Amino acid sequence: MPDHAPPAADPSLITAFRDILGPAGVLAEPGDIAPHLSDWRGLYQGEAMAVLRPASTAEVAACVKLCAQQGIAIIPQGGNTSMVGGATPEARPRQVVLSLARMNRVREVDTADMTMTVEAGLVLARAQQVAAEHGVLFPLSLGAEGTAMIGGLLSTNAGGNTTVRYGNARELMLGLEVVLPDGSVIHGLRRLRKDNTGYALRHLFVGAEGTLGIITAAVLRLFPAARETATALCAVPSEDAALALFRRFRTADEGAVRAFEYMSGIGMGMVLSTIEGATLPLSARADHYVLVDLSASREGAGLRGLMETVLEAAMEAGEVEDAALAESEAQRAAIWRLREEHPEAQKRAGASVKNDVSVPVSAVPELIRRASDACRALIPGSRPVPFGHMGDGNIHMNLAQPEGMSASDFLARSHDIMDVVNEVVRDLGGSFSAEHGIGRLKTDMMESWRGGAELDAMRRIKAALDPRGLMNPGKLLPDA
């Protein structure tokens, strides 16, 4: 928390913003601003003279231009679901939060081109719903989809549950509309599958976390809707058995695998003990679990038979101990809930340190074992809670506080915990940031992981587009 009162907003600036956005477009009262000044995890608290709520790209551009003229920093904010403080302002004067929440229109759906053009403030769940209403699929799916917005998802290159089949947010985007730090606009809402015309600027802003410009709209790729699905929750004896099961499904029909999620016994126990209505559809608890989700866009794909055949072979090989197959959409949702409630369950179970890391898929079992052992050695009694996207190598290598240890004492060791996990990740050729981004939490790690020519190139790009450093300061790049 800041140890001083935030500076009073300049009345003339507030008036200027209201002239652009109208009375409903500017929040200047402390009580109205407060929800935009902290992150979902409660790690960061910042300041802002106002929250700007533009309703069009022209209004975003006008606000950005005024901020550039006045030297006011801008913190773009979507659903404010960042796990790394990427949308939270710092405790510094002369900055505004720019919320994209009012820019939430679907501009166009084209089922011939299989594209959907949407504004940055559209909530992911609504994008999924609109696609479904048109008989098609927008496949990006993650736990925060009821709150997270398209602009933020693209700005962080979000991954989620279906990356193993459809890729990250970057692969689901064809074109972007972006307001640059000087207020000019890149009008790049092209629906082209092939377009080799110089630098692919759209990809510069995906994953840039709002440090190079503000995404205001995007052309998204659509896919045929699933006409057949099959979902199962499996108890497996080890991390290696989980990976062996993934390989079996990939060999049997790689195109059918929509998601392949790993969960530990500790994490599942937290869900079952803290989440109302969560039940385990297996005969007994296990140390390791896998959620397998298959889908096909054609009827008669035989996914149920495929699921049963692969699981039967895996059971004979000792790779699966027990399995429950969803017999209805309600059962499928209940199985998925056991996976999706992991973050909330950890929050209810006490303090946790989150490590969003990735390694080559073949190294996932070793990552889980070695990182868990390293965390227990660092803080005896701590509870490793690894879970996530085994199919694409992204595991959330989280650690819950030991019983009897205060949350504050545990969280004071956050960077020590991240360091020991990252030592394992580095040794296995992985990344310290898989899908959550860098934000405020991990900027100090960039030098050791991306230093030299790579980080220097990032800084030169930042300096070229945002020479005054007004766009989402304090995020992604460490201080030079």
Written overview of the protein:
It is a single chain. By secondary structure, this protein is α+β, with helices and mostly antiparallel strands. The protein has 5 domains: 11-99, Uridine Diphospho-n-acetylenolpyruvylglucosamine Reductase, domain 2, CATH 3.30.43; 106-224, Uridine Diphospho-n-acetylenolpyruvylglucosamine Reductase, domain 3 (2-Layer Sandwich); 228-342, Alpha-Beta Plaits, CATH 3.30.70; 350-435, Alpha-Beta Plaits (2-Layer Sandwich); 442-480. It has 17 helices and 19 strands. It has helices at residues 11-21, 30-33, 57-70, 124-133, 150-155, 163-166, 201-205, 239-253, 265-274, 303-316, 329-340, 342-349, 364-378, 407-411, 414-427, 446-450, 453-465; strands spanning 26-27, 50-52, 73-77, 95-99, 106-110, 115-119, 136-137, 173-179, 185-188, 214-221, 223-224, 228-236, 257-264, 288-296, 322-325, 352-353, 356-358, 383-389, 394-400. Helix 1 (11-21) runs antiparallel to helix 3, helix 8 (239-253) packs across helix 10 and helix 9 crosses helix 12. The chain is globular. It starts with 10 loop residues before the first helix and ends in a 15-residue tail after the last helix. The model is unreliable at 1-6 (pLDDT under 50). Keywords: FAD, Flavoprotein.
Quick synopsis:
This protein has helices at residues 11-21, 30-33, 57-70, 124-133, 150-155, 163-166, 201-205, 239-253, 265-274, 303-316, 329-340, 342-349, 364-378, 407-411, 414-427, 446-450, 453-465, and strands at residues 26-27, 50-52, 73-77, 95-99, 106-110, 115-119, 136-137, 173-179, 185-188, 214-221, 223-224, 228-236, 257-264, 288-296, 322-325, 352-353, 356-358, 383-389, 394-400.
